[in-house]
Amino acid sequence: MRNKVYDPGDVKIIGMKMTNYNNSTTKDIRGQVISLSIFEDIEQPSVYAEIILKDGVNLVKDFPILGEEYLEISYITPGRDNMTIYKLRTFSVTSTGVDPSNKASTYILKAVSPEHFTSSINLTERSYKETVDKIVNNILDQDVNTNKSRLIEDTRGIVPITIPRMPPFQAIDFLRQKAIAKRPSGGVFVFFENQYGYNFTSIEKLIEDGKETIGSKIFTHAPEAGTDKIRQTYVFRNIIQLEQLSKFDTIDKLSSGYFKNNVKSYDMLTKSFDETKFDITEQASKFIYSDSSSSIPNSSGLVDQALSGAPTYMFAPKDSSRGEDFIADLLGYRRAFVKLFNQAVTRCMVYGDNYISVGDMVELKLPDTSGTTGKKNDDNRYSGNYLITKLRHMIVYEENKFKHRIVFDCNRVGVGA
């Protein structure tokens, strides 16, 4: 396979198998598939897929498709050693249309990870006095019943908590907000599934670990990369389409407490108030930036102006009888970090690579959009490392073969000099 010349976007489909609920019938649906989209998102607990089929064999009626089938989708990018396998369950058929010849119908088959079904029918109802990471592990074992791989970051602090009949994924999201990493900032936690399994970790850890594993995931926006002269250098990692969704929003940062905020907490046991103050000049050193040379994207003059104004206030209830949860101390940092994280967001379309997943760090070399002709320099402020936060694998049947492209949104913490 390695001796053959491949074009960017080539993909080998190993299988697209659909099996009915009682495992009595299996059908390979590759011949009916027009397109396949698989979605991953750091804010979603499950992988989600949409498959557009042109059905000339009446699968909906004769298979039949009932919204409970199992799907196994496997594919590989030529040159890679390991294929990607998604195991999903269908739950809906929508947008049904009929071919003008009345010989085929088209429809969208929607699917999600099987654990999403489990979370929809099970409830978590038990008390814990344990660290959040161990509670999450227990819920995945006992209530989600999954044996998928996991990346679960260690947390600090024993949490006495009773979970009152919540769906498991909802319970984990509730715990996500209470999770505190073993780092000075405490971290901002996310819970999501990607092709490799479940992730309960802080954004900061994803950035730290991801910077060490970028490897060949370096993408360049070079529209001329299709020319023979530089084809071999750029084309497989060329950014086909680029959109910078957000660079900054100063009013939003000023009004949301990014620069300055106060958290007031009220202890229901001692009936006393406490106040924690956040100042960006004192806390910015806790931020985990996308690059070692990055910094907050504001001038010292604006920072001084913001700090001279009134703070944004937040409230956090507290119960000292249940031990220290540190939430009030960390809430101000979390508000500021999330605002900074969501300031610089870029959307890219690139050629397919089955190894790329949400939660990966990539390096983007973005052009300096000056009016000059000739070779462009990189935009030093916005070129650099980004964390993929949303991702869509798109596999489309075109010109008698499947082609693979990826659209991803990625976020950057800080800007370059």
Question: What does this molecule look like?
Answer:
The mean pLDDT is 90. α3 runs antiparallel to α4. The chain has 417 residues and is an alpha+beta fold. It contains ten helices and 21 strands. The strands form four sheets. Strands 1, 2, 3, 4, 5, 6, 7, 13, 14, 18, 19, 20 and 21 form a 13-stranded mixed beta sheet that branches. Strands 9-12-11 form a three-stranded mixed beta sheet. Strands 16-15-17 form a three-stranded mixed beta sheet.
Brief rundown of the structure:
This protein has 417 residues and is an alpha+beta fold. It contains 10 helices and 21 strands.
Instruction: Name the helicity range.
Output: 10-25%
Q: Could you tell me how far the N terminus lies from the C terminus, measured between alpha carbons in angstroms?
A: 44 Å
**Classification by helices and strands:** alpha+beta
Average pLDDT, rounded to a whole number, is 90
Radius of gyration: 24 Å
> Which stretches are poorly predicted, pLDDT < 50 over at least 5 residues?
none
Percentage of residues in DSSP E strands: 35-45%
Number of helical segments with 4 or more residues: 10
Number of strands: 21
What does the largest sheet look like? 13 strands, mixed
Identify the overall geometry: globular
Attribute tags:
10 helices; three-stranded mixed sheet; 39% strand; 21 strands; 417 residues; 13-stranded mixed sheet; alpha+beta
Q: How would you summarize the topology of this molecule?
A:
Blueprint: E1 12-19, E2 26-28, E3 33-41, E4 48-55, H1 59-62, E5 70-76, E6 84-98, E7 105-112, H2 114-121, E8 124-130, H3 132-142, E9 150-152, E10 159-166, H4 168-176, E11 189-194, E12 197-202, H5 203-211, E13 218-220, H6 231-234, E14 239-246, H7 250-256, E15 260-267, E16 272-279, H8 280-283, H9 300-307, E17 312-318, H10 327-341, E18 344-351, E19 361-365, E20 384-398, E21 401-412
Parallel strand pairs: 9-12, 13-19, 15-17
Antiparallel strand pairs: 1-2, 1-5, 3-4, 3-20, 4-7, 5-6, 6-7, 8-10, 11-12, 14-18, 15-16, 18-21, 19-20, 20-21
Helix pairs in contact: 3-4
